Amino acid sequence: MRHTSGDIHHSSHHGRHYGSHHGTGTDAVPVTTAGLPDWLDPVARAAATVEPDQLSRFLPPEDGAGRQSAVLILFGEGARGPELLLMERASSLRSHAGQPSFPGGSLDPEDGDPRGEGPLRAALREAREETGLDPAGVQLFGVLPKLYIPVSAFVVTPVLGWWREPTPVGVVDPAETARVFTVPVADLTDPEKRATAVHPRGHEGPAFLVESALVWGFTAGVIDRILHYAGWERPWDRTKQVPLDWRS
User: Fold this and answer.
1) What is the CB neighbour count within 10 angstroms for residue 111?
2) What digits encode the pLDDT tens for the residues 172-191?
3) CA dist., res. 59 & res. 61, Å (int)
4) CB–CB of 184/82 below 8 Å?
């Protein structure tokens, strides 16, 4: 996604009604918890009940300003159990080079109404464009409150998906993406792989040291809150710090 190093740790969501069809003439995008594996139930419950201010202290502007965007938080099952799909931005990019993130990006007009199903379509479309993911194998099961990233003025809708029928993924455009990878949830909950990222400007937020990557900023903040509200979080040493550089 073309965003963000903003800390979302600790946003506004004006309605979670994604069942009706708004916008373009494309097919409706279903969001359903039917048939999810049992281990995803806590995530689905959290998505249905979490309040905006439980996710972030940054709320989208009341006047609707901001760049509407969406990310796909895709859960699958791998060799080591539940896992999340992430990508790493190319090191040649001007902003947030080399930073891991969820697949995602800005809404296009053809995605439809940002207040309706637009974010759902955008999350799936961007994931396909960035990782080669086949959306046909993805079951959307929840939508988190919209989050705001002041530094880039992005209003981000996190869309939750279950990788019901896994398909091959990988780098589509090397100019944009360095790699596409999955992270076992067991590693994300491992206290030894957790730390607090500290930016030279003084910002602090959760971080994960997984799969030869430092996951921090917006992405780490979302993961941190999901782990917390799903009841998966394990006690970890918040005094363990990882410094970021000025380019971050």
Assistant:
1) 25
2) 999 889 999 999 999 999 99
3) 6
4) yes
Determine the Cα–Cα distance for residues 90 and 203; give it in Å rounded to an integer: 24
Dist CA 57 CA 12 (whole Å): 9
List the helix and strand counts (H, then E) for the chain: 5, 12
Q: What digits encode the pLDDT tens for the residues 34-83?
A: 999 999 999 999 999 999 999 988 889 888 889 999 999 999 999 999 99
Hey, how many other C-beta atoms are within 10 angstroms of the C-beta on 232? 17
Q: Are 144 and 18 in contact (CB under 8 A)?
A: no
> C-alpha angle 83/85/91, rounded to 5°?
135
Side chain identity, residue 54: Q
166-173 long-range contacts, Cβ below 8 Å, gap at least 24? 166/76, 166/137, 167/132, 167/133, 167/134, 167/137, 168/132, 169/85, 169/131, 169/132, 169/133, 170/131, 170/132, 171/131, 172/129, 172/130, 172/131, 172/132, 173/130
Q: Against a cut of 0.90, is the pTM above it?
A: no
Which residues touch 246 (CB under 8 Å, ≥6 apart)? Answer: 200
Q: Which amino acid is at 191?
A: P
**What is the predicted pLDDT for the residue at 58?**
85
Per residue in 84-103, pLDDT (tens digit) is 999 998 876 555 567 899 99
What residues are paired with 67 via a beta bridge? Answer: 154
